[in-house]
Amino acid sequence: MIKSYRDLIVWQKAVKASLGVYQITSTFPKSEMFGLTSQMRRAAVSIPSNIAEGRSRNTRKDFTQFLRIAHGSTAELQTQLEIARELSFVSQTDYNKLAGILSEISRMLNSIITKLRAPNLTASS
Question: Domain boundaries in the chain?
């Protein structure tokens, strides 16, 4: 039974992805501190934050809206990760690992959003 956003596997994975982004971006050039590093970190933190906020609102409509925002942040981060790889800021191994996690988060968010659109469900389901 899901009692809190902390019980959601997608939230747990998003937190781990955020930690991974912080680790990866810590090696970026200092010239990127206020550029790609900052953008990626904000997008990464936005994903679990929006999942948590939406779940805490306790309405299906609000939860769905915040999940959509989290999904958008996931796409934003996937794009930034691709740019970082193209700039050789991220190893192929780190890229593959984080891209896989983000893809999984994206699929999970889509699944939850689809289920929330179904009749007779509540945000606590």
Answer: 33-117
Question: Tens-digit pLDDT profile for the chain (125 aa)?
Answer: 778 899 999 999 999 999 999 999 999 999 999 999 999 999 999 999 999 999 999 899 999 999 999 999 999 999 999 999 999 999 999 999 999 999 999 999 999 999 998 876 554 54
pTM value is 0.91
CA-to-CA separations, 23 to 26, 117, 121, in angstroms, rounded: 5, 36, 38
Class of domain 33-117 as given by CATH? mainly alpha
